[in-house]
Amino acid sequence: MKAMVLRAPRDLGADDVERPTPGHDQVLVRVTHSGICGTDLKIYKGAIPVRHPLIMGHEMIGELVEAGDDQSHLGDRVLIDPGLYCGRCFNCRAGQTNLCPNGVLLGRDADGGFAEYVMAPRSHIFPLPDAISSRMAPLLQVVTVCLHGQRLVDVLPGQSVVVVGLGVAGQLHVQLAKARGAYPVIGITRSEWKRRVAADSGADITLPSGADGVRGVSDATSGQGADVVIESTGQVSAIADAISMARLGATLLLFGITTATEGRLPFYQLYFKELKLVNSRAAKSEDFPAAIDLVARGVLRLEPLVTHVVSLPELETAIHMLESDEDRRLKIILENT
Protein backbone atom coordinates (compact mmCIF):
# COMPACT_ATOMS: atom_id res chain seq x y z
CA MET A 1 0.00 0.00 0.00
CA LYS A 2 1.02 3.62 -0.43
CA ALA A 3 2.06 5.48 2.72
CA MET A 4 3.85 8.63 3.77
CA VAL A 5 6.79 7.35 5.81
CA LEU A 6 8.90 9.37 8.24
CA ARG A 7 12.33 7.79 7.95
CA ALA A 8 14.06 10.23 10.32
CA PRO A 9 13.32 13.74 11.63
CA ARG A 10 12.42 15.93 8.63
CA ASP A 11 12.91 12.99 6.26
CA LEU A 12 9.41 12.24 4.96
CA GLY A 13 8.38 10.65 1.68
CA ALA A 14 5.97 8.39 -0.15
CA ASP A 15 6.75 4.69 -0.06
CA ASP A 16 5.24 1.28 -0.75
CA VAL A 17 4.82 -0.64 2.50
CA GLU A 18 3.16 -3.90 3.43
CA ARG A 19 -0.57 -3.65 3.97
CA PRO A 20 -1.37 -4.58 7.59
CA THR A 21 -3.21 -7.83 8.26
CA PRO A 22 -5.71 -7.62 11.12
CA GLY A 23 -5.61 -10.28 13.81
CA HIS A 24 -8.11 -11.30 16.44
CA ASP A 25 -10.45 -8.44 17.42
CA GLN A 26 -8.74 -6.11 14.94
CA VAL A 27 -10.13 -4.40 11.86
CA LEU A 28 -8.68 -2.84 8.74
CA VAL A 29 -9.85 0.58 7.63
CA ARG A 30 -9.24 2.21 4.26
CA VAL A 31 -8.33 5.74 5.25
CA THR A 32 -10.23 8.36 3.28
CA HIS A 33 -9.53 11.50 5.32
CA SER A 34 -7.11 12.48 8.06
CA GLY A 35 -6.19 15.64 9.92
CA ILE A 36 -2.80 17.18 10.70
CA CYS A 37 -2.08 18.64 14.11
CA GLY A 38 0.76 20.10 16.16
CA THR A 39 1.73 16.66 17.46
CA ASP A 40 2.49 15.58 13.89
CA LEU A 41 4.68 18.66 13.46
CA LYS A 42 6.59 17.89 16.66
CA ILE A 43 7.13 14.28 15.57
CA TYR A 44 8.26 15.43 12.12
CA LYS A 45 10.79 17.85 13.63
CA GLY A 46 12.06 15.30 16.18
CA ALA A 47 10.75 17.19 19.22
CA ILE A 48 8.74 14.11 20.19
CA PRO A 49 10.98 11.02 20.10
CA VAL A 50 9.60 8.11 18.06
CA ARG A 51 10.93 4.99 16.37
CA HIS A 52 11.68 5.23 12.67
CA PRO A 53 10.42 4.46 10.12
CA LEU A 54 6.95 5.64 11.18
CA ILE A 55 3.65 6.40 9.52
CA MET A 56 2.24 9.38 11.40
CA GLY A 57 -1.38 10.49 11.70
CA HIS A 58 -3.84 10.02 14.58
CA GLU A 59 -6.91 11.96 13.37
CA MET A 60 -8.45 9.61 10.82
CA ILE A 61 -11.64 8.20 9.37
CA GLY A 62 -12.35 5.75 6.60
CA GLU A 63 -14.24 2.72 5.35
CA LEU A 64 -14.22 -0.63 7.11
CA VAL A 65 -12.75 -3.20 4.71
CA GLU A 66 -11.80 -6.17 6.93
CA ALA A 67 -13.45 -7.13 10.20
CA GLY A 68 -12.74 -10.79 10.88
CA ASP A 69 -15.84 -12.89 11.52
CA ASP A 70 -18.23 -9.93 11.59
CA GLN A 71 -18.74 -8.90 7.98
CA SER A 72 -22.03 -7.07 8.53
CA HIS A 73 -20.59 -3.56 8.63
CA LEU A 74 -18.06 -3.74 5.80
CA GLY A 75 -18.08 -0.49 3.83
CA ASP A 76 -19.34 1.58 6.76
CA ARG A 77 -17.65 4.89 7.49
CA VAL A 78 -15.93 4.82 10.86
CA LEU A 79 -13.97 7.10 13.15
CA ILE A 80 -10.90 5.60 14.83
CA ASP A 81 -9.95 6.22 18.46
CA PRO A 82 -6.13 6.27 18.19
CA GLY A 83 -5.46 5.94 21.93
CA LEU A 84 -4.90 2.26 22.74
CA TYR A 85 -4.63 0.94 26.30
CA CYS A 86 -3.93 -2.37 28.02
CA GLY A 87 -7.07 -2.62 30.17
CA ARG A 88 -5.17 -4.36 32.98
CA CYS A 89 -3.00 -1.78 34.74
CA PHE A 90 -3.95 0.32 37.78
CA ASN A 91 -4.93 3.35 35.68
CA CYS A 92 -7.09 1.35 33.29
CA ARG A 93 -8.85 -0.41 36.17
CA ALA A 94 -9.43 3.03 37.73
CA GLY A 95 -11.12 4.23 34.55
CA GLN A 96 -8.12 6.34 33.49
CA THR A 97 -7.49 4.58 30.21
CA ASN A 98 -6.04 7.76 28.70
CA LEU A 99 -3.21 7.53 31.28
CA CYS A 100 -2.35 3.87 30.67
CA PRO A 101 1.44 3.52 31.11
CA ASN A 102 1.36 0.76 28.52
CA GLY A 103 -0.71 2.85 26.13
CA VAL A 104 -0.01 3.41 22.45
CA LEU A 105 -1.02 6.31 20.22
CA LEU A 106 -1.48 5.35 16.60
CA GLY A 107 0.67 7.69 14.54
CA ARG A 108 3.23 8.13 17.31
CA ASP A 109 3.97 4.75 18.91
CA ALA A 110 2.57 2.63 16.08
CA ASP A 111 1.77 3.27 12.43
CA GLY A 112 -1.12 5.65 11.93
CA GLY A 113 -3.38 7.11 9.29
CA PHE A 114 -1.17 8.87 6.73
CA ALA A 115 -1.51 5.81 4.49
CA GLU A 116 -4.03 3.94 2.37
CA TYR A 117 -4.95 1.59 5.24
CA VAL A 118 -4.66 1.49 9.01
CA MET A 119 -5.30 -1.30 11.49
CA ALA A 120 -7.10 -0.74 14.81
CA PRO A 121 -8.78 -2.75 17.57
CA ARG A 122 -12.44 -3.48 16.91
CA SER A 123 -13.26 -1.69 20.19
CA HIS A 124 -11.74 1.55 18.88
CA ILE A 125 -13.93 2.23 15.84
CA PHE A 126 -17.15 4.22 15.90
CA PRO A 127 -19.73 4.47 13.10
CA LEU A 128 -20.24 7.87 11.52
CA PRO A 129 -23.76 9.15 10.80
CA ASP A 130 -24.60 10.64 7.40
CA ALA A 131 -25.01 14.06 9.05
CA ILE A 132 -21.22 14.38 9.40
CA SER A 133 -19.28 14.83 6.15
CA SER A 134 -16.06 12.92 5.60
CA ARG A 135 -14.03 16.11 5.20
CA MET A 136 -15.12 17.35 8.62
CA ALA A 137 -15.03 14.00 10.44
CA PRO A 138 -11.28 13.85 11.34
CA LEU A 139 -11.92 16.89 13.56
CA LEU A 140 -14.02 14.66 15.80
CA GLN A 141 -10.82 13.35 17.39
CA VAL A 142 -9.98 16.91 18.44
CA VAL A 143 -13.51 17.33 19.77
CA THR A 144 -13.03 14.29 22.01
CA VAL A 145 -9.88 15.75 23.55
CA CYS A 146 -11.58 19.11 24.21
CA LEU A 147 -14.66 17.39 25.60
CA HIS A 148 -12.52 15.30 27.94
CA GLY A 149 -10.83 18.46 29.25
CA GLN A 150 -14.10 20.30 29.87
CA ARG A 151 -15.56 17.28 31.62
CA LEU A 152 -12.67 17.49 34.08
CA VAL A 153 -13.45 21.11 34.99
CA ASP A 154 -17.24 20.72 34.74
CA VAL A 155 -18.20 24.05 33.18
CA LEU A 156 -21.59 25.13 34.56
CA PRO A 157 -24.34 27.37 33.10
CA GLY A 158 -23.76 31.03 33.89
CA GLN A 159 -20.04 30.68 34.56
CA SER A 160 -17.68 33.04 32.81
CA VAL A 161 -15.18 31.16 30.65
CA VAL A 162 -12.04 32.49 28.98
CA VAL A 163 -10.31 30.53 26.21
CA VAL A 164 -6.72 31.66 25.64
CA GLY A 165 -5.60 30.68 22.15
CA LEU A 166 -8.07 30.24 19.29
CA GLY A 167 -6.53 27.56 17.15
CA VAL A 168 -8.67 24.56 16.27
CA ALA A 169 -8.87 23.29 19.86
CA GLY A 170 -9.49 26.77 21.24
CA GLN A 171 -12.33 27.34 18.77
CA LEU A 172 -13.90 24.05 19.86
CA HIS A 173 -13.51 25.00 23.52
CA VAL A 174 -15.46 28.18 22.79
CA GLN A 175 -18.28 26.19 21.19
CA LEU A 176 -18.34 23.58 23.96
CA ALA A 177 -18.45 26.25 26.68
CA LYS A 178 -21.37 27.96 24.93
CA ALA A 179 -23.15 24.61 24.60
CA ARG A 180 -22.77 24.13 28.36
CA GLY A 181 -24.44 27.50 29.00
CA ALA A 182 -21.39 29.52 30.03
CA TYR A 183 -21.65 33.31 29.89
CA PRO A 184 -19.77 35.28 28.92
CA VAL A 185 -17.47 33.13 26.82
CA ILE A 186 -14.38 35.17 25.98
CA GLY A 187 -11.94 34.14 23.24
CA ILE A 188 -8.41 35.53 23.22
CA THR A 189 -5.80 35.47 20.45
CA ARG A 190 -3.48 37.87 18.66
CA SER A 191 -5.15 36.98 15.32
CA GLU A 192 -8.00 39.29 14.36
CA TRP A 193 -9.22 36.73 11.82
CA LYS A 194 -9.42 33.93 14.41
CA ARG A 195 -11.27 36.29 16.74
CA ARG A 196 -13.87 36.76 14.01
CA VAL A 197 -14.19 32.98 13.55
CA ALA A 198 -14.73 32.59 17.31
CA ALA A 199 -17.32 35.38 17.34
CA ASP A 200 -19.18 33.73 14.47
CA SER A 201 -19.12 30.47 16.45
CA GLY A 202 -20.67 32.00 19.55
CA ALA A 203 -17.98 33.79 21.56
CA ASP A 204 -19.63 36.66 23.43
CA ILE A 205 -16.42 38.71 23.58
CA THR A 206 -13.11 38.40 21.75
CA LEU A 207 -9.91 40.14 22.82
CA PRO A 208 -6.28 40.40 21.70
CA SER A 209 -3.58 38.53 23.59
CA GLY A 210 -1.35 40.01 26.25
CA ALA A 211 -1.97 42.92 28.61
CA ASP A 212 -5.00 44.15 26.63
CA GLY A 213 -6.59 40.75 26.99
CA VAL A 214 -5.97 40.65 30.75
CA ARG A 215 -7.53 44.10 31.16
CA GLY A 216 -10.43 43.17 28.88
CA VAL A 217 -11.27 40.08 30.94
CA SER A 218 -11.20 42.17 34.10
CA ASP A 219 -13.55 44.72 32.56
CA ALA A 220 -15.93 42.03 31.27
CA THR A 221 -16.17 40.37 34.69
CA SER A 222 -16.60 43.50 36.84
CA GLY A 223 -13.00 43.33 37.97
CA GLN A 224 -13.26 39.85 39.45
CA GLY A 225 -11.75 37.66 36.73
CA ALA A 226 -13.19 34.58 35.05
CA ASP A 227 -14.64 31.49 36.74
CA VAL A 228 -12.85 29.13 34.32
CA VAL A 229 -9.81 29.88 32.17
CA ILE A 230 -8.82 27.39 29.47
CA GLU A 231 -5.23 27.83 28.31
CA SER A 232 -5.00 26.34 24.83
CA THR A 233 -1.62 27.45 23.47
CA GLY A 234 0.94 25.73 25.69
CA GLN A 235 3.04 28.89 25.77
CA VAL A 236 4.43 29.94 29.15
CA SER A 237 3.57 33.60 28.59
CA ALA A 238 -0.05 32.63 27.83
CA ILE A 239 -0.20 30.52 31.01
CA ALA A 240 0.97 33.57 32.95
CA ASP A 241 -1.81 35.66 31.39
CA ALA A 242 -4.34 32.91 32.13
CA ILE A 243 -3.42 32.99 35.80
CA SER A 244 -3.89 36.76 35.83
CA MET A 245 -7.32 36.44 34.16
CA ALA A 246 -8.69 34.03 36.76
CA ARG A 247 -10.81 35.18 39.70
CA LEU A 248 -10.18 34.19 43.30
CA GLY A 249 -10.98 30.49 43.64
CA ALA A 250 -11.23 29.96 39.87
CA THR A 251 -10.35 26.87 37.84
CA LEU A 252 -7.51 26.90 35.30
CA LEU A 253 -7.51 24.16 32.66
CA LEU A 254 -4.01 23.70 31.26
CA PHE A 255 -5.06 22.23 27.93
CA GLY A 256 -2.20 23.31 25.65
CA ILE A 257 0.79 20.97 25.55
CA THR A 258 3.71 22.75 27.20
CA THR A 259 7.21 21.47 26.45
CA ALA A 260 9.08 24.32 28.19
CA THR A 261 11.06 23.30 31.27
CA GLU A 262 11.27 26.77 32.80
CA GLY A 263 9.63 30.18 32.54
CA ARG A 264 8.28 33.24 34.37
CA LEU A 265 4.87 32.80 36.02
CA PRO A 266 3.02 34.90 38.64
CA PHE A 267 3.44 32.18 41.26
CA TYR A 268 2.17 34.34 44.11
CA GLN A 269 -1.18 34.63 42.34
CA LEU A 270 -1.46 30.83 42.33
CA TYR A 271 -1.23 30.93 46.14
CA PHE A 272 -3.25 34.07 46.75
CA LYS A 273 -6.10 33.16 44.40
CA GLU A 274 -6.23 29.51 45.54
CA LEU A 275 -6.62 28.43 41.94
CA LYS A 276 -7.64 24.91 41.03
CA LEU A 277 -5.19 23.71 38.37
CA VAL A 278 -6.38 20.93 36.07
CA ASN A 279 -4.34 19.29 33.36
CA SER A 280 -6.01 17.18 30.68
CA ARG A 281 -4.41 14.56 28.49
CA ALA A 282 -5.91 12.94 25.40
CA ALA A 283 -9.41 11.43 25.65
CA LYS A 284 -11.25 8.30 26.68
CA SER A 285 -13.21 5.96 24.43
CA GLU A 286 -16.41 7.18 26.08
CA ASP A 287 -15.76 10.67 24.71
CA PHE A 288 -16.09 9.49 21.10
CA PRO A 289 -19.83 8.69 20.96
CA ALA A 290 -20.55 11.94 22.84
CA ALA A 291 -18.46 13.97 20.38
CA ILE A 292 -20.13 12.35 17.38
CA ASP A 293 -23.56 13.09 18.85
CA LEU A 294 -22.76 16.78 19.50
CA VAL A 295 -21.63 17.29 15.91
CA ALA A 296 -24.40 15.22 14.33
CA ARG A 297 -27.03 17.29 16.19
CA GLY A 298 -25.44 20.56 15.09
CA VAL A 299 -24.43 21.61 18.60
CA LEU A 300 -20.86 21.99 17.35
CA ARG A 301 -19.99 23.40 13.91
CA LEU A 302 -16.87 21.98 12.27
CA GLU A 303 -17.14 23.54 8.81
CA PRO A 304 -15.60 26.92 9.75
CA LEU A 305 -12.55 25.16 11.19
CA VAL A 306 -11.46 23.32 8.03
CA THR A 307 -9.53 25.86 5.98
CA HIS A 308 -7.39 23.63 3.73
CA VAL A 309 -7.92 20.27 2.01
CA VAL A 310 -4.92 18.64 0.27
CA SER A 311 -4.03 15.20 -1.06
CA LEU A 312 -1.99 12.67 0.93
CA PRO A 313 1.20 13.10 -1.18
CA GLU A 314 1.17 16.79 -0.20
CA LEU A 315 1.66 15.91 3.48
CA GLU A 316 5.09 17.48 3.85
CA THR A 317 3.90 20.72 2.26
CA ALA A 318 0.96 20.74 4.66
CA ILE A 319 3.27 20.18 7.64
CA HIS A 320 5.39 23.14 6.54
CA MET A 321 2.19 25.20 6.52
CA LEU A 322 1.93 24.51 10.26
CA GLU A 323 5.41 25.97 10.72
CA SER A 324 4.50 29.19 8.91
CA ASP A 325 2.90 32.29 10.38
CA GLU A 326 -0.07 32.01 8.01
CA ASP A 327 -2.91 33.71 9.85
CA ARG A 328 -5.97 32.35 8.06
CA ARG A 329 -5.29 28.70 8.69
CA LEU A 330 -6.98 26.31 11.07
CA LYS A 331 -7.40 22.60 10.31
CA ILE A 332 -5.68 21.00 7.31
CA ILE A 333 -7.38 17.84 6.04
CA LEU A 334 -5.66 15.18 3.93
CA GLU A 335 -7.89 13.50 1.39
CA ASN A 336 -6.99 10.08 -0.04
CA THR A 337 -8.26 9.80 -3.60
What does this structure look like?
By secondary structure, the protein is an alpha/beta fold. The protein has 2 domains: 2-136 and 302-335, Medium-chain alcohol dehydrogenases, catalytic domain (Quinone Oxidoreductase, Chain A, domain 1), CATH 3.90.180; 143-279, Rossmann fold, CATH 3.40.50. It has 10 helices and 17 strands. It has helices spanning 38-45, 90-93, 139-153, 168-179, 192-200, 211-220, 236-245, 267-273, 287-296, 315-323, and strands spanning 2-8, 11-16, 26-36, 59-66, 77-80, 83-84, 104-105, 117-121, 125-127, 161-164, 185-188, 205-207, 226-231, 246-254, 276-279, 306-311, 331-335. α1 (38-45) packs across α10, α3 (139-153) crosses α9 and α6 runs parallel beside α7 (236-245). It is globular.
Note the total helix count: 10
Regions with pLDDT < 50 over 5+ consecutive residues?
none
C-alpha Rg, in Å?
20 Å
Cα end-to-end separation = 13 Å
How many distinct domains? 2
Question: Considering DSSP H and I runs of 4 or more, what fraction of the residues is helical?
Answer: 25-40%
CATH topology of the largest domain: Quinone Oxidoreductase, Chain A, domain 1
CATH superfamily of the largest domain: Medium-chain alcohol dehydrogenases, catalytic domain
CATH class annotation of the largest domain: Alpha Beta
- Shape descriptor reads globular
Strand content: 25-35%
What are the secondary-structure elements, in order, as H or E? EEEHEEEHEEEHEHEHEHEHEHEHEHE
Largest beta-sheet details: 7 strands, mixed
CATH architecture classification name of the largest domain? Alpha-Beta Complex
Mean pLDDT: 96
Q: Structural class of the helix and strand makeup?
A: alpha/beta
How many β-strand stretches? 17
